[in-house]
Every structure is written in C-alpha cells, then in structure tokens.
Amino acid sequence: MSLDIQVKPAEAGSKVLPPEVIKIRNLDFSYGESQALFDISMDVYEKEVTAFIGPSGCGKSTFLRCFNRMNDLIDIAKIKSGTIKISDVDIYDEEIDVIELRKHVGMVFQKSNPFPKSIYDNIAYGMRIQGIKKSSELDSTVESCLKSAALWGEVKDRLNESALGLSGGQQQRLCIARALAVKPKILLMDEPCSALDPIATAKVEELIHELKKNYTIVVVTHNMQQAARVSDRTAFFYLGRLIEYGPTEQIFMNPENSQTEAYVSGRFG
Amino acid sequence: MSLDIQVKPAEAGSKVLPPEVIKIRNLDFSYGESQALFDISMDVYEKEVTAFIGPSGCGKSTFLRCFNRMNDLIDIAKIKSGTIKISDVDIYDEEIDVIELRKHVGMVFQKSNPFPKSIYDNIAYGMRIQGIKKSSELDSTVESCLKSAALWGEVKDRLNESALGLSGGQQQRLCIARALAVKPKILLMDEPCSALDPIATAKVEELIHELKKNYTIVVVTHNMQQAARVSDRTAFFYLGRLIEYGPTEQIFMNPENSQTEAYVSGRFG
Amino acid sequence: MEGKVIHRFSKRFSKKAFFENLILNILRISTYLVILFAGFIFLDIGINGSKAIFKSQAPFINTDFLTQKPETLHVFEPKHIDKKLKEINAKILSTNIENKNLSNLAIEDSKKNDLLIKSLQAKYHVLDKQRKEERLLFSDTEFRALEIKPSKSEYVYETYAYSGGGIGPAIIGTCLLVLGSIAIALSLGVLCAIYLSEYSRPGKVLQIIRLSILNLSGVPSIVFGLFGFGMFVLFFGWGVSMIAGWFTLAIMALPVIISASEESMRSIPKGFREGSLALGASKWTAIRTNVLPYALPGILTSSIMGIARVAGETAPIMFTAAFALRDQLPWEGLEKASDFIFQGVMALPYHIYVVSSKIPQNEYTENMQYGSAFVFLFIVGFFAISSIVLRIRVRKKYKW
Amino acid sequence: MEDPNLEPKDTAPSFSRKRLVLFGKDSDSIIKSFFGSSATISIVVLALITIFLFKEGAGFINQYHKSLKEYRLSGLEYVDILKENRENFTELNRLLTDIRSNWIKSLKSNGLSQSEISSIVMSPDSKSLFLGYMRAGKSLKSYIKNKMDLAIEVRDQHITNKNLRETLNNFAQKIEDVEKFNYQLNDVDRSQFILRLKEKNLNNATDYELVTNNESLINSLRDGDAINSQTRKIFLELIKEQYVDIENTIKPVDFSSEIVKITSNKEAYFKILVGLESDIQKILNEKSLFDFNDDELNKRFSKFKDLNYLYFETIDEHKDKIKQWNQNQPIEILHALISFITGKDWITASDQQDWYGLLPLLSGSLLVSFIALFFAVPLGVGAAIYTNQMASSIERNWIKPYIEFVSAIPSVVIGFFGVVVLGEAIRNFSNLSILSWVPFFPLGERLNVFTAGLLLALMAIPTIFTLAEDAINNVPKHLKEASLAIGATRLQTTARVIVPSCLSAIISAIMLGFGRVIGETMVVLLCAGNRIKIPEFTDGIGVFFEPVHTMTGIIAQEMGEVVQGSVHYRALFMVGIVLFFTSMLINIGAQWIVKKYKKLEA
Amino acid sequence: MKRYFHKELNDLKNKLILLGEKSNEIARLAMDGLLENDIEKVNKAAGMDDYLDDLEQEISYACIRYISLRAPVSSDLRLIFVALKASRDFERIGDEAHSITRKSSKILINDGKLSEQFNLQEMSNLACQLIKDAISCFVEEDLEKAFAVLKKDREIDTINQKHFELISDISMQEKISDPTRFNTLLISKSIERMGDHAKNIAREVIFLLSKE
Amino acid sequence: MKRYFHKELNDLKNKLILLGEKSNEIARLAMDGLLENDIEKVNKAAGMDDYLDDLEQEISYACIRYISLRAPVSSDLRLIFVALKASRDFERIGDEAHSITRKSSKILINDGKLSEQFNLQEMSNLACQLIKDAISCFVEEDLEKAFAVLKKDREIDTINQKHFELISDISMQEKISDPTRFNTLLISKSIERMGDHAKNIAREVIFLLSKE
Ligand SMILES: Nc1ncnc2c1ncn2[C@@H]1O[C@H](COP(=O)(O)OP(=O)(O)OP(=O)(O)O)[C@@H](O)[C@H]1O
Ligand SMILES: Nc1ncnc2c1ncn2[C@@H]1O[C@H](COP(=O)(O)OP(=O)(O)OP(=O)(O)O)[C@@H](O)[C@H]1O
Ligand SMILES: [Mg+2]
Ligand SMILES: [Mg+2]
Ligand SMILES: O=P([O-])([O-])[O-]
C-alpha cells in the first residue's frame, strides 16, 4: 500500500508532517455506469486546511461527500474499490454507524442552509437531536460555537430571531457554527463562499483560518485565489483524477505537473 | 454641470480620451422609500470596458439596469433626479421608445438564460421579433454573431440542438451572441461569470476582451481580479455612492480613496 | 410632431403597437368575462338565497331554516283570487297570440293589444299581492296539529315536498361526511406523501405509484360513486351508510392531498435535509424536525382545499351515503353505537340535487332551493377562501 | 444501554459501531417500509376500482348476450325487421302530413279565411290523397301488431319460466336442507309455514282434527318453539306441495314451435305488401298532377313521390331479409359487446326489448365537452396569460384567488343555477324577435347541451386557468427579462418565449380540463336535458341546442333505481368502465405530452 | 478588517527592518574594524555576511510566496516590491561591507595603519548614518527623511571623489604601499556604493509612500 | 488556452531581452572605445545609459502592473520576478559600462594608451560573452548554458585579481601614470561587476527554469 502521489519530504519543509486523519487509498467511485473518481490516493493531515481545486465536474464534491458518506443518499452512487479510513477506521465498513460518522465529520454546504428557526435553535439543533436537553449545557455550547464561528458579537443580542434574517455571510458562518455544535473533528466545506460577496467571503476565510487550530478542514473551491489563501495543502483534480497534491505553496509556486501549472495560471481549457 | 469625479488627465495617460457614450449626471434612484443610488455622475467611454465593483447591495446592478431601463419592470423603482444620456439622448425622456433603447443597449445576465429553443433560434430570435424572416440574412447573422462570441467552432455542427444542452460557459457566451444579434452598440453585463467555473470564466473574459474592439461594455462583477483583468476603467461603489472611478490601473495600483484601497486589498468590512 | 427632435430612440407609430394593444384588450376582456359570469352566479345565489337565510328582525338569521328538518309545505290559496288570476292569465295569453298572428301591417292593432296586456299585467300584480296576503302556509307538523283544516271549497290546496321546515339534517350530514372523510384521507395522504417525497427511489415502483395517483386524481367522481357502491355498499355490505361515504370521499380526496402534501414537502429546500443529516440526524429525525414542521402549513392549506372538493361533490355520495329524506338526526334512534356510522344521512349536495330536479320551481319551493344552495355555497366557499388566504400567507411567510 | 467496556479505545473514533437493530433492520428502514406500505394505497385503490368496476360490469356481456339470444329465439327480432318496413311507411306518411300542414300555412299566408282553407283542404280530391295514403297502411300495421304480441308473449313466458325455475331450485335446496336433521326454522320460514297451515285450514275447514292440530302447531310456531320431527314432516310436506304447484305453473316454451306461429304466413304478409304497393301507386298516379298552387310545395310533393318509388324498391330487399331470417342462427358473445359499444339506442324498461347502446351517451358526453372546451380553452388560457403577463400586480392579486375560488363552487350549485336561471335565460334570449333569423331559434328545450356546456366551461376554466397560470409562472423570470432586454415587446415575449416554453404544460392543462368536463356529473344531469338520443349532427349548429344525455348522467340517474344484478345494473357499470378508462387515457395522455415536450424544451 | 495574511506582510516588513539593521551593523563593524585596527571586528563582520544573504533569500522567498498566494494589490503590493528591492540593497550593503573587510584585513596585515589623510572615518560615519536614515524613514514612513537621504548621498560621493584624487597624488606613494592605496581606494568606493544603496532604499520608500 | 494578457507577459519578456541586448551593446561599446582608443564609441556608450534606465523603469512598472492586475502565479510570476531582477542587473551593467566610459575618457585624455599588460581585451571579451550567454540562456530557456555562465564568471574574477596584483607591481609605475593605473583598476573592477551581474542573471534564469 503506497501513496501514488506523495509529498516529497524536501518540499514539505523541514517541519514534521502532522498525523494523517483521513487516508484514502485507490478510490474508484462511480455514479451508475459512469465513473466519477479514478484511483485516488491521498492523505489529509490533522489540523490543516486541505483545498480541492479543479474545473467543474472533475469530482471534487463527489470526493468530499465520500468522507461523511453523504453520497449514500444518491442511489446510484457507489464506491467501486479502494478504502477511506478516518482515524484508521474504514468508514465504508458494514459496521459503521453513519450517524456517528457524520457527527464526527461535519459538513458545510455551498448554499448556506440555516433552518428557518431562531439562531439559537439552529445551533442547538444538533445537540437536541442527540437528546441533550439541559438548557445550561445548550446555552454554553451555543455561545462557544458562535464565538468559534466569529459570529457571537454580531448576533448575541438577537439569538431568538430567525436565522433567515441574517445576511448571506452571516448565514454561512451560522452554518459553520451549527456544524461545530456536534463537536466534529473534521469539517468538510463544499464551496462555502461561492454564493457570497468578497467581504463575506473574507470573513468566512478568516474563520477557516481561525478554525484550523482545532479542526481538520477540507474545503472545495472554485476560487484558486481562495485555495491559495486559506489552505495548507492543495489537491488538483481533473476528470476524476488527482493530478497533483502537495503543500499549497508548491502547487501555486512550483507545480510539478504541467496541467496543474496551466490550471493555476489560467492557461487551462 | 460638472463631473464630480473626473479622470485626471495625467492619470488617464497621454492618450486622448475616447468619446463618452453614456453620461450620467447626479443620478438619484430609489426603490419606493429607500434610496438605492445617491448623486452619481460619471461617463462611460466608447469601446472601453467599464467595470463596477463594490460590496453586495451597494447598487451596482441597480445602476446598470438603469442604462436600458430594465428597472421599469419593477413597480416601485423610480429615478428621483438626474439624467442618463446615451449618445446625448436622455433615455428617461417621455418620448423614448424603450424597445428601441433596449435594442441599442444589450444586456447579459448573471445566470445564463438561453431560451429553450435551438441554438440557431436563440440567436435568430432578436431578428425575428423585428420581422426579419429572410433565411439567408438570418443564417449569416447567426454565423457572424456566434463567431463574434467565439462559439461558432464549438457549436456549428449542432445549431439545431437545444441550447439548454450547452455547458454553463457556452450558454453564457450564447447569451452574449444573442445580445449581439440585434446589433447593439452597448453591452451591459451583470455578473456574467458569477455562476461559472474558472475555465468558463476565462473564456467569457477572453470574449469580453475581444468584443471591446467593437462594443462599449459595462460589466458588474464581484470578482475584483476579474475587474482588474478585463476592464479599462473601474468604478467602486459603496452604499449607493460612487466612491472612486478611474482607469483600472489607478484603482488597483494607486487608489486615491482609502475606502477603495481597503476594498481592493481585502481589508474592507 | 413639430419641434420634437427625432432621434434613434424616439417613439414612432407602428402597426405592431396597435396590434399589441388589440390583443391585450381581447385577453383582458376574456378574463373579465369569466369573472363576470362567475360573479353573476354568486350574486344570484347570494341575493336569492339570503331571503331564506336572513330575516328582517333579530336574530336576523333564520335559525329555523338552518336547524329544522325538511318538511312538506301545505299551501292553501284563496280560490276566488286564484280563479281571477287564471282568467287574467288566459287573457294575456290569448292577446299575445293574437298579437303574433297579426300581420306586420296592423301596427295600430298591435299597439292596442300591447296596452291591453300592460293593463292586465298591472291588475295581475295587484291581485297577486292580495293572494299572497290571504293564502295560508303550513309545514307538515303545523298542518297535522291543526284542529280545523281550511275548507277545500274556499281554498285551493296544494303540497310541496321539502319546502317547509329547514335543512338542518343535511347540514349536519354534510359536516359529518366531510369530517370523517378528511380524517381518513389526511392520515393516509400524508403518510403516502412522506414516502414519495422522502423515501422513494426512482424506479418502476415509484413510477407506477405516481401514475396511479395521477390517474386517481382524474377519475370522474361518479366512478368513485360506482366504486363505493360496488365495494362498500354491496360487497362489504355496509349499505348506504356514512362510513361508505367516508371511504368513498376519502379515496377521492386522496390524490389531491397526496400531491399537495408531497409538493409542499418537496418545496422544502434540499439543504434542510442535508444540513440535518450532516449533523448526524437519522433520516427520520431529519424529516420529523426539518421537513414536516415547515411543510405542515402547506399540507394543511391544501387539505382544506381537499375539504372543499369533498364537500362539494354529489355524485360519490348519491348511492353510498346520502338519503333524499331522513327525518331523524344522525344521533337519534340509535340502537347500537356502531349504528351511527352505518346509517345513511342527508347531505346538502344531494338535497340540492333532489330539490332542483325532482320538484317544480315556483314561489314556494324557490326560497328553500336558493337557501340550500346559498348555505352550501357558503360552507364550501368558506373552506375554499380560507385555504386560498392561508396559502397566500404561508407563501409570503416562508420564503427560503 | 452501552457497556462501558465496549467503549472503543481512545484512538478509534466512536462511529465504528452500528446502533441497535430490530428484526435485522435498523430503525430507519423500518420507518421507511411503514411509509412505503401506505404509499402503495394509491395503487391498491386504483386496482380495487378496476376490480370492482369489472366485477360488476363483467356479467353484463353474458347477460346481455342471453337477452339478445332470447330476442332472436322469441321472434322479436323478426318482428323488428317487419317493423322496419312499417317505419319506412310511417316516415313517408309523416312527410305527406308535413306537406299538408305547410299547405295550410301557405294558404293562410295567402290571406284565405279559415273556412276557405278547410274547404280546400278537406275537398274530396285532397282527402282521397291524404286519407287514402294513410289508410293504405292499415292492414300492414295490424298484421305487425299481431305478430309482435305473439312474440312478446313467448318471450315473457320464457322469462317467467326462468324465474320460476330459479324459485324451484331454491325450494329444492330447502327441501334438501329440511330433510337433513339439524335444520332450524328461521323467521321467514316460520311465518311462511304458518301461512301455509292457515291456508290449509281454510281449505280443509271440515276436517276438525287436522284443523286443531294445525292450530296448536301454529301456536307453538308462534312461540318460537323448535320443530320436532313431526312438524318437520308436515313442513316438508307443505313445501313439497308448494314445489309441485310451482312446477305445474311452468309451461315450457318451445321456441322452434312457437316461432312457426309468428313466421308462418309470410305469404299473407307479402300479399299485404303488394296491396300496399298497388294502393300507393294508385293514389300517386291519380294525384300525380295534384296542384298546391305553390312551387315549393309542388316540388316537395314530387320529391315525396320519388321517395315512394324508392320505398318500393326497398321492399324486395325487405322480403329477402325476412326470408333469410333464421331463428337458429347463433349469436356470438362478442356481438353483445359490439352492440353495446356501437349500439345507437339506450332503451330500458320497455315492454319489447331493452337496448344498451353506448353511442347516444358517448356522443352526448363528447358534444357537451366540445362546447365546454370551446369556451373554456380560449377563456382559460387567455385569462392565464393576461393575469400572469399583462395584468398589474393589483389585478393579479385578486384575479387569481377569485378564479381559484370559482373552482370551489360545487357542481350541484352550478347545475342548480343552470336549471333555475341560465336555461330560462338562454331560451328567452332565443325568443328575442331580433334573433328570429337564426335557423334553430327559438329553442324548444330550456335545458339543452348548450346550457350544460356553458356551465361546464365555467367549471373547466379554473382548472385550465390554474394549471396554465402555474405553468406560465414557472417559466423562469429571467427568460422574460432576456427577451425584453433584446428589445422584444411584451406580447412578443409572451408569444415567442413564454408560451412556447410552457406549451406542453398548457396543453396538458387543457387535457385535464377535458378530463374534468367529461367526468362531471351533476351539471349535465341537471342541465343537459336528458334525452337519450344521438344528437342530429345533420342539423348543423342546431345540434348544439338539443337536449342530450351523457355517460355520467345516466349512471347518476338510473343507478338508484335499477335492480341489483340485472342487465341494466351491469350496463351502468359498463358505462362506468368506459368513463374510467377514458379519463385514464386523458390523464396519461396529458402526462405523456408534458414528458415528451419537456425533453424537447429542455 | 485585518486579514490574517496581513500579519505576514508585517512579518515581512519586520524582517526587512532586521535585515536593514544587520546590514548597518555589518557596515559599522567592517569600518570600525579597519579604522580601529581591530581585526576581530573585521572578522566578525566577515562572518555576518552569510546571515544577511540568508535573510535576503528569505525575504525574497516570502515576497514571491505572498504574491502567488495572496494576490496583493495597491499599497500591499508596493510594500512587497519595496521589500524585494530594499532587501537586495541591504544585501549588497552587506556584500560591500564584506569586501571592505577583505581589503581591511589585507591593509591591516600589510601596513597596519591607514593614512590619516583619507577621510574614511567621516565617510563611514556618513554611510552608516545614511543606512540608518534609510531604515528609519521606512520604519517611520517618513517621506522627508527619505528625501534627506537622497541629498546626503551626494556628500559621500564628493568624499569618494576626493579620495581618488588624493590617492593618485604622488605624495601618497611614499607613505603607504601601493596595495594599501589601492585597497583603500576600493574601500572608499565600497562605502560610496553603500551610500548609493541607502539612497536606493530611500527612493523605494518614496515610491512606497508617495503613490509614485 | 492562451489568455490575452499572456501577450503582455511576452512583451515583457521581449523588453527584457531588448534591455539585455542594449546593455550588452553599451558594455561592448565602452570597452571597444577604450581598447581601440575610439573616443566616439566611448561617448556613444555614455549616451546610451539613460535609455537603459528608462527601459528598466518601464519593465519594472510593467511588472508591478502585471502583478496587481493579473495576479500571476507559478511560472508567470517567476518570469515577472526574473524580469524584475534581471532588468535591474542589466541596468547595472549599463551603469558599470557608463562608469567605464568615464574612466576611459580620462585615460584616453591623460595617457592615450593602456598598458598591454592589462588583459583588458580578454576580460572585456569574456564579460561580453557572459552577458550574451546570460541573455541567450534566458531566450532559449537553456539551463546548461546558465550553469556555464556561472562557471565562466570565475575566469573574469581571476583576471581581475591578476590585474590587481599587476597594478600594485612596481614595474607598472613607470609605464603609466598613477590615475591611469587606478582607473584601469576600477575599469577592471567594473568589468568584473558586469560579469557578476551576468552571473546573477544566469542564476535568475536557473530560478525561472528549474523551479527553484
Ligand atoms: N447525482 C449524480 N448522479 C450522476 N452523476 C453525477 C451526480 N453528481 C455528480 N455527477 C457527475 O459526477 C461528476 C463529478 O461531479 P461533481 O459534482 O463531484 O463535480 P465537481 O468537481 O464538484 O463540480 P463543480 O465544481 O461543478 O461542483 C460529474 O461528471 C457529474 O456529472
Ligand atoms: N426590486 C427591489 N425592490 C426593492 N429594493 C431593491 C430591489 N432590488 C434591489 N433593491 C435594493 O437596492 C439596493 C441595491 O441593490 P442592487 O441589487 O443594485 O445591489 P448590487 O450592488 O447589485 O448587489 P449584488 O452584488 O448583491 O448584486 C439593495 O439595498 C437592495 O436591497
Ligand atoms: Mg461541486
Ligand atoms: Mg447585483
Ligand atoms: O551591486 P552593485 O553592482 O549595484 O553595487
């Protein structure tokens, strides 16, 4: 079992590699007959931001949604071969409790999707469905999550207003806070800023940067500048294949693969 | 009558300013009670690309839609004072035929919106509604428009297929071609690339660059990089006011206004 | 147009604009035509019906009409007036015929005849008023209670079925039918909708289910009636009974409720479900907490529409649940509790059908006919309007 | 619930263990199957509807087949062939009478007085023409009437026999039951028993012993005592007696012998025909130059003469038909179905032969739907387009709910309105003297297909309107903007972009409107006039003002009165089946259109 | 709002200041060593050059990294440019100092003493002052100081010119050996180059602050 | 796909090459003027320096413009960097040539002739060759050539070293005057700097091509 694309020790700098949290090996994934991912192997490291970039339809979202088995919701989606291990547990094992997995691996979506409840209830939702009812516990978690999501200051006086009254960027940060409330270790974000304007985007990016102290984050983005800004490691996908994966600096400054280079410098297509 | 913000001759370079096509003077615009634009004066120059940037809700789209009176469709929208002149004709005059105006000022929208017809019919639509029926004339215009939109090569073999089968970027270019078919002089684009991936975006940008040889183009964008790349002149809006307007180089390299500087360098907000 | 600068954008007259205006006006007229026609029906039934419902003195509402059982109306009209009226009528008729037979040349004569007719009509009106004052009206019970019946030599005696009393049992019967059937339809429909919108996977089975629902919604109500008759009344042996009506109506309302509920569940953004699942909710939890609560207003709204539809139908209950006349209220004279659901009831729609097709239209029956129609229209309209208003509100409130 | 010892080690996250399962399935899949089962209800219901319609309707073909067989065997069919000839003659006679009445009218318009007219019309000359012609057919009529009575008698006897045999079967069954030891008398038996005993007492009033015995027996029966072997014997005896009585009343009919009576003297019939022909010929020859002093009438008279000769020519054919008629010719079972579908008559409860033909109902339904759609489609679609695209927002805000509200008016209320107001109004309108030039005005019938069609249009408009408006509304707003931005006018945008992109949905809305119209019951039942006859399409536009009956109407009208299990009952279910499948076809068609054109549009 | 990567910009700036100070230090050491005949100082200065080179490398890398990853515009970008150019200048100052040390050690070994006629003391003071000023005008974003630097540089040039004339003066030949003369000349030239670099830095600061 | 602004990058590259060639030319002219005693050539060379300075300014502006407007990454960005640095080096080459012309004119005025012992001819040939090589390794994207440049530079250093020794040799004193000696020394030093700059350029090309 060996990584096809391995970070050259020299390039990863002299610092020690953090432990891997997600290990993907030789993953083939298909929707019905059409294969969407081909033989992908990579490692996602702890407390780093890993960005997936690549042209539309290259399978970024598909790959991301493998990590918390959101693809289970699509009937024809199927992992043909390969394994995904999170903390050394094969998450596609029969014995896996998907619910627990999803608590462990939080997700934030492209379009912010706050529930039409109050801000407080949005955050408390995740705990409530786990049966936590004690209001003191809820209160403190809501506060800490909102603080982590850098939203506390903006909403602390209107926790009981509807979350739909927030602006787009605030909604997206609320969704992040909501995901934090179930205490995940890993956060997946599928184009979290694509519907936001530059200022809101900046705030979310700031937040991602903040969060990486405590969480392992995987983020899909169409915006190369964003990947460059927020991520520690970047993976470039094309036509369902992982073309290059390495530290973000390397990908943007000295990509090894000419396709990667063409893509990041806008010559691609 | 004087421009509040005038391009300093020195900064516009030694080259002579091209003639103004759109002249806006002291425009106040409101939706019902809430004013959306405040005292805007500026000139749009011929065969240049003018970009509007600014945070969400600052009135870019509103301003753009004033130029072809698309705001007429909104009941509560009203120009409170000020004039917009296109080729020295006040377009908000009583005597204006809006249909003719819109033929003169084409528009391309944020989300590509091809009609559910064939590719050919999409382009021919504009001519047909003007009563042109001769198929030879239609054929030649369709071809030339598709060529101008850099789409001919990609679709020439399937002109009779539905336009909805095209990819997002192709659809957007089709919409541009469709707008060209009625021979406008000015093209307005409201976030034409916001729904596209980087490659499609690049193609559309390429196209805009190409088109500016023959058309005056005004483009609204959230993407500052894009404004920097495609435009000759950039206007920065904030809270319904025009903060700074000048050659793109100036705005991005040496903005005069500190708000502009903060915005373009991501410190804003 | 002197003094005007002609430029690129200036307005010019064109055939196109004229034609456009023409079409616009044609469309506008056709819209208002529909509105007027329907409005006329409302007005006609409203005005005539309110005569039966409202009274000039307190409590202003004719509670008797709304609560009492239908009875036969016994009418005694004074004979002498009746005779005179008939004579006048005959005269008018003959003059009319004469008038018609006159050739076009005899203008003078026809004018004279017209005058004659007019005077006769005036006389008729006076007499008619008198007749109305002198006639005697009794409902069945009143009539039976009479010690001395009016003599037949003085009065012309006629009876009119259903025209006395009120329509109480029919109102009650309709309410019972609607309540029961909606309860059945709603519980089944919502379950079905949950499956379709949340659990179903595209495939043969789903296709068949959808096709069935679609077809079910198009099946004519009379066929539901036939089916209910064949299955519940005969095969299950329930007889003409409320429960047979319930099930027949429920099955009829089912497709409406299923598709409306499904639609309102589908309109909940996918993000709500995904968001919830991604937080570690099980599928059912996600539905329970994040789909149903938001879909509920929509479901209720459309089920009220279902109620309106169910309440308005006649054909399905004609042979399954409705009696033309039943002078006992549903809770009267029951031997066992189960008899309650196994009894036929009166229902407003069927009642209206009966009184408008089986008895003559005249001044004695008209009041009751219009009154029933008005009450019925009011009940159904109430549900319909509340559903429409609710929906508008719901749509405004929930925008995601 | 969780054993702490099972808690995974610190390194392994906790999701590696499945949660509790039930019956080998996790809770989610159990919930899913619960909902799934309730979803299949729609299939089940649809299947049940089909099953029950067929269950009740299926017997129809067999029964109708039997009835048709009897029709042939009993000679009724033969008589009907005879009647065809008579009908032809009657028709001719009617034509002649028509000429006569027109003649009187024309005389009147010429300014002649009543007495003058009658002297002309009643002159011997004309009398011999008109009366003579009528008399010529007298013997024919009486011959046919005679034969018909015979045939009906035979058939009735046959049916009676059939019923009696059924009763006998019942008795035989009962006898068998009683003979078995454990038979318990039920109430009906008991009262019948008592009745029979009383009767016996009356008949044998002299036999005192028997009477007293019977009396005591009656009393014990009245008290509800169980029967002992003795009484059973008596009971059995009585039943058997009854059995024999009934058996005796059966007079078996031998169709082949009975038929002889009917078909026997064909020669006499032919003679009558010859007589008729010569009589007519004579009259016509005599009166060939009869002058009405009116070109129009003369023309009609000469045409009448021509028709008579045509009639003579048919007589030979008629004779052949009579000769060829064969009682024993078998009737295919399919024939019953075909004659249901293509039958032109729907005649029930007649003393001759009942006919269950679909055509008059189907044509009525279609005609009424056509009228309804004729009004509803342009108005509904037009209103939808107007409301969505052209109306101001204030207008839109009330028109939509208003029209939706119209859809909630119960059909019976609309029917009531038609009966009480609209029918009368339309007739009064047609009575206006300004409109007397319209050929079929004034209208004879207050309730006709037009009244019903108009009201049905009102019911279909909301359906069409709502669906079409939704479809138009679903066209993305940006398409409209795009079109306007190119410089199209509002109308061009509507006609070229918006309507085409939702055309399939509009068409399917129209089809669903059609489905609603054809399935509507109460309005047609109340307002269509309920005349069971194929509309006279030869009348031109006048056909739209005839009373008709419809499929839905007939079910609603007759279902309540038929005997359960009779041919008639089953025929109504057959109509139901036809309705069911028609509506299904319409629905599937509507869906198919949407699907097919969605693909094209997409 | 401050973005997290603006901290990187600050770091960069600090590094540049550090580099400036180090280069100033190395220049000082080299000169003092020569003037005070302190071979240790000279050696110390010679040893510091590598550090400076590394620092310049680092800054240059940080700049390229910042540009590729953060796409800076306007003043941020100007800062990067300034960092890039100024670091190069500082590094060159270090280089010149290094070459001074080489020459100094030769002089110290051969002659042990410099002719007092050479105004090296003043020159070196001036150069160091210039470098210091350049740094502080960058740190304090002081446009006037920057212009002052431009002016001062000319003084150094004049002294250098004088040295050249002095050294070609015959009278000098007697006092010190030829190699020492040449080395002194080259040292003077190096100091002049230092002044030039300081001037360049001041120019860049002007570019940074004055929006060109 | 090539984006329209990649043409700008090409223009930039071309400008850089032009600058390189001009700097080579100016170096050649200055040296030839001295060696061939051709005062005209020297003057011509002296006049070209301003042009070079402008070109460098232009390139530098284009770079900053490209970075702010086009946000380049990877090789594009490296090219910009190389352009930025190499243009500076070329400009410096021009400067050195300029200073050579100044010294040359002095020598030509004073002595009129250079000692043949100075191997200036070879040195200048080498330097020009080096500059040429640096340009061509950039144009041809030839990594090997670039490394070759690094090597060759050492030869110039050696010659320069020799000159230093030669000039401090007593025997030289007699043949030519002191100022000429010093000037010659400084010219040699300048040529050596030119070589250094060419070496820098080669280093930058290596950076551009070898992905660091
Ligand atoms: N539910 C699905 N069923 C079938 N094919 C799918 C489905 N979802 C995605 N695909 C296909 O899988 C491929 C990868 O899709 P995916 O959404 O992962 O791309 P992506 O990289 O996220 O693109 P984008 O940037 O547009 O979001 C595409 O070719 C797409 O058509
Ligand atoms: N139809 C409308 N009715 C009322 N207010 C409106 C309408 N459209 C826009 N506005 C308001 O006008 C202001 C300017 O809106 P506009 O859409 O022009 O902003 P924008 O700069 O285009 O923003 P974005 O980048 O989000 O598109 C906003 O405050 C918005 O809320
Ligand atoms: Mg995606
Ligand atoms: Mg906008
Ligand atoms: O490094 P310089 O050659 O410019 O002193």
Features:
heterohexamer; C: 400 residues; MetI-like fold; 2 domains; three-stranded antiparallel beta sheet; two-stranded parallel sheet; E: 212 residues; mainly alpha; Methane Monooxygenase Hydroxylase, Chain G, domain 1; 7 helices; elongated; binds adenosine-5'-triphosphate; binds magnesium ion; binds phosphate ion
Short description:
The complex is a heterohexamer, with two copies of chain A (269 residues), one copy of chain C (400 residues), one copy of chain D (602 residues) and two copies of chain E (212 residues). Chain A has 269 residues and is an alpha/beta fold. In chain A, 33% of the residues lie in helices and 25% in strands.
3D architecture notes:
Chain C is mainly alpha-helical and 400 residues long. Chain C has 15 helices and five strands. In chain C, strands 2-1-3 form a three-stranded antiparallel β-sheet. Chain C has a two-stranded parallel sheet with strand order 4-5. The longest helix of chain C is centred in the first third of the chain and has 39 residues. Chain C is flat and about 90 Å long. The model of chain C has no long low-confidence stretch (mean pLDDT 84). Chain D folds into three domains: 36 residues; 226 residues, no CATH class; 229 residues, MetI-like fold, CATH 1.10.3720. In chain D, 74% of the residues lie in helices and 1% in strands. Chain E is mainly alpha-helical and 212 residues long. Chain E has one domain: Methane Monooxygenase Hydroxylase, Chain G, domain 1. The longest helix of chain E has 37 residues. The model of chain E has no long low-confidence stretch (mean pLDDT 85). The structure holds adenosine-5'-triphosphate (ATP) (2 copies), magnesium ion (MG) (2 copies) and phosphate ion. Phosphate ion binds next to loops of chain E.
